[in-house]
Amino acid sequence: MSDQNHPLPPFALSLSKGLAERSRSHFARLSGRLRLPSARTVIAGLLFAISTPALAQSLAITGATLAIGDGSEPIRNGTVVITAGKVTAAGAGIAIPPGTKTIDAAGKWVTPGLVSGFSRVGLVEVPAVNETNDASARSPFSAAIDVAPAINPLANPVAISRTAGITRAVVVPSTGTGIFAGQGAVVDLGADMNPITKPRAFQYVEMGEEGAKDAGGSRPAAILTFKTMLREAQEYAKAPASYDGRSKDALLNRIDAEALVPVVTGAMPLMVHVESGRDILAVLALRQDFPALKLILAGAAEGWMVAPQIAAAKVPVIAGGLDDLPSSFEKLAATQSNVGRMVKAGVAVSMGLMDRDEGLQLRLATQQAGNIVALNKVPGATGLSWGQALRTISSAPAEAMGLGDRIGSLKAGRAGDVVLWDGDPLEMTSAPLAVWIDGIAQPLDNRQTKLRDRYATPEEGELPKAYSW
């Protein structure tokens, strides 16, 4: 944070000026289309926001088709008001406080910032290049690994995802030497160096086929390993000083045992990757031995087969959208109606990128949700309403992470994560015109847009410089 007592260093000031300069053409177009007060005013506001990230302007966006993100259907001629970085009101007939800057968004759409329910954004930049891939490790540690320090807010996929309207993401580690991968985080995709919304938000474990492989080759081995590790964590919790983790029979060292204590007590959610119906039931049955487990199912390609049991257990699911091909034995009953059928059965379903470039392609979220809506037109298929589909990529993943009262919707008191779209956001031809995170306007350029602009109109002579600030 910068103020009169903490002036910006020259590099940060140069960066702020560069971001403002690169955003000028975009905001000039935005001003003309949306009748903003002036492009100069918006740029000044953006520069101020970058310089002092703890502060945000009061803003009202009016006249839009407004989606709250809570599962309700869009509201015509809606208004959202953001004050001090938070949503203070959203809906129809909202009074605008005097002195609030106003954007006339007639003919446009407004939604909460989208939340990716499963990703590795910021952990992975080029998956095949080890130096840019921090998703997993061959390490003596497992459950204690914390992904938060490795999140890179300057990674290209962060800016690309932000340009597509993604403002928050659940970041999930990958397993390295065992079934437990470590502690995931919830991050924001703002153009700053403070991306962590919630560190150590959950523990991640592999079951099913992947868990069987990590445990030595069978599902029984994975389940026994899981139970043994959690019992060792319980032993550590009872007597930390006497637990050394060095016994030849111990599966957990002290650090990993300590990290699993919040899981066995229910203080930390446990995200379990599992796909088949039988494996889902086996995971739900683990509560018989560990009743405090706060489970989240990830994947659940065959979740529709056991949806009543999932709903009765009140366990949220993060699914992968239209996963309708039997790409593995644990997905033989995969169907494009999986999400719709689970929601119909009362399961709280979010969507994320399961095995689909989860480090890079968060922008596919709107396509995932739009496809689920389109299923309603397919005879015999089960889809979702527009509002339900948007919920799977906004408030539902926020609620699964225990952050439903902070992010994921435009309800009063939530973070000022707002996206202004040029059309229906679940249509592939639509794109964001402006993005705010915590009430702060974000730049909408990235490496891809820079390359596009560089080569869009080739001229004779030397090519333009690759980078200019």
TrEMBL record:
Domain Amidohydrolase-related: 315-427
One Pfam family it belongs to: Amidohydro_1
Gene3D superfamilies for the chain: Metal-dependent hydrolases (3.20.20.140), Urease, subunit C, domain 1 (2.30.40.10)
Coiled-coil region list: none
Protein name according to UniProt: Imidazolonepropionase-like amidohydrolase
Organism of this sequence: Sphingobium xenophagum
